[in-house]
Automatic annotation (TrEMBL):
Protein name in the entry: Site-specific DNA recombinase
Organism: Sphingobium xenophagum
Occurrences of domain Resolvase/invertase-type recombinase catalytic (ranges): 2-153
UniProt keyword Cytoplasm present: no
CDD domains for the chain: Ser_Recombinase
Length: 481
């Protein structure tokens, strides 16, 4: 019988030797059973809470090709700790007539999937809860709950037992002076863009070690990001402002804001960099600069509709000097974003959008009809259209699936109210779900269906589209070539 071995270790207190140990005992077991090992799959320093791992994905692909009859691992939690993922993996293996065997549980059955999967899921939740409790305790002692802010150094020292004391910070005087300067300049009336440009010209490194941008300074007031919104600078350590939820489709973490009532705020006067008066003046200027939605009755849900509309060459233009993007700097002019927003490029040449679009369309109509160039265009066009078709279809499917789930959740909440549940809390949850449903429905209404498969007569289609673009170009594109 042919067998594949799988080993994994996560990033928590484990090491590469753990992989070798797992594979070693699996090899011994396979030899005792007389199985032929055809492949060994590993994932290093990757959590078991997701199947989005190169090793496990390769194992699934090879199982579908019939390369082996068994999958052997040290324990079920090496394969996955997520209930949905382990059940899905079990189904995939069963479909390929591949049995799952572990040294701890033996041959995996539906009973193992149900019971052990639940236990592993509870382990993950318990681990997360313990981690949060530990971080909360650290924050309540005035120590950092993780990460480090610009303006501070990590203090490394040992306790009486020789253990590393975590969470201590001290003020970095050089960076603190930059922070104070940013606040003073902002209160004095300078824009975040101008402040960033001046810092870049002086060669002062940004928090990430690169160049300053206006978003590094402005940030997001609601999320507490950006230099102007970091309350640690006034001696207040804020923790639990947001939580992270893993997207079940992509496996990526998504940030969700927590209600202010759940925030943990601790006074740390020894870390103060900005005095209260300067902080308050900055907040007042921020508030005066805020742009309100056009229609307050609609709220901020449709605020994105006010964003500048995309044009023909949106996202396709690059500065020939620095490689940065060329974007709209006024109603009709395009310019280098790095030059205007960061001051890191000397290219101050601007061009009218209509003029540039006219030149591009003229070149496409008169120079891309060469057979060799047109064949290359057809290949690239086909690849891009197929990619767009897949992306658009996936987004539409995901939105429809989320709407269906929201409908089920709403029905469940209605039943809870009928059974005497806490109406106030349930109503608040329902309002949030209804708002999300409306947002998804609006996105679906505006979404384009996946582009159709390419027509055989693409040359005619290409010429027709170019002629249409040229006829409908903005006024003023009939310029000098």
């Amino acid at each position: 019988m042919k067998v594949a071995l799988y080993a994994r270790y996560s990033s928590d207190n484990q090491r590469d030797a753990s992989i070798a140990d797992q594979l070693r005992i699996c090899r011994l077991h396979a030899e005792k059973q007389g199985w032929q090992i055809v492949e060994e799959y590993t994932d290093h320093a990757i959590s078991g809470a997701s199947l989005l791992r190169p090793g496990i994905q390769a194992l699934i692909a090879d199982a579908n090709r019939g390369r082996f009859n068994f999958v052997l691992a040290e324990a079920m939690d090496r394969l996955s700790r997520d209930q949905e993922d382990i059940a899905g993996l079990f189904k995939r293996m069963a479909y390929g007539d591949v049995k799952m065997v572990t040294l701890s549980e033996g041959e995996i059955t539906h009973l193992h999937i149900g019971l052990k999967g639940t236990m592993n899921a509870l382990f993950l939740k318990d681990l997360a809860d313990k981690t949060r409790r530990g971080l909360r305790g650290r924050v309540e002692q005035g120590k950092s709950g993780g990460g480090n802010s610009y303006g501070y150094d990590v203090v490394k020292r040992l306790d009486a037992n020789g253990e590393l004391i975590r969470g201590d910070r001290s003020i970095n005087d050089a960076q603190a002076s930059v922070i104070q300067r940013i606040f003073r300049d902002y209160v004095a009336g300078k824009s975040a863009k101008r402040i960033a440009t001046e810092l870049n010209k002086e060669g002062i490194e940004a928090p990430t070690g690169g160049t300053w941008g206006f978003s590094t300074i402005n940030g997001n007031p609601k999320r507490g990001t950006g230099i102007l919104n970091n309350e640690l600078y006034v001696g207040k350590l804020v923790w639990n402002r947001q939580r992270f939820i893993k997207d079940p489709d992509t496996g990526k973490r998504q940030a969700r804001p927590n209600p202010e009532s759940e925030w943990i705020i601790q006074d740390v006067p020894e870390l103060r960099i900005i005095d209260d008066a300067l902080w308050q003046h900055a907040k007042e200027r921020q508030k005066s600069c805020q742009v309100e939605p056009l229609n307050p009755s609609v709220g901020s849900a449709n605020f994105r509709d006010r964003r500048r509309q995309k044009y023909l060459l949106s996202g396709l233009l690059q500065c020939g000097c620095c490689g940065g993007g060329y974007s709209m700097i006024s109603a009709m002019m395009l310019g280098c974003s790095a030059a205007r927003n960061k001051g890191t490029c000397d290219n101050r040449l601007n061009i009218r959008r209509d003029r540039l679009e006219g030149r591009v369309l003229h070149a496409l109509r008169h120079h891309l009809m060469d057979p060799a160039l047109f064949a290359e265009f057809c290949d690239e066009f086909t690849r891009e259209m197929n990619r767009m078709r897949g992306d658009a279809g996936a987004a539409i499917t995901a939105a429809r699936a989320e709407i269906a789930k929201i409908d089920r959740d709403l029905d469940m909440l209605v039943n809870l109210i009928l059974r005497g549940g806490a109406a106030d809390k349930i109503n608040a949850k329902m309002v949030g779900l209804e708002a999300r449903k409306k947002e998804l429905e609006r996105d679906l209404a505006q979404a384009q269906e996946p582009p159709p498969l390419l027509h055989p007569n693409m040359a005619h289609h290409y010429r027709a589209q170019l002629d249409n673009l040229y006829r409908n170009r903005p006024i003023g594109t009939a310029c000098r070539w």
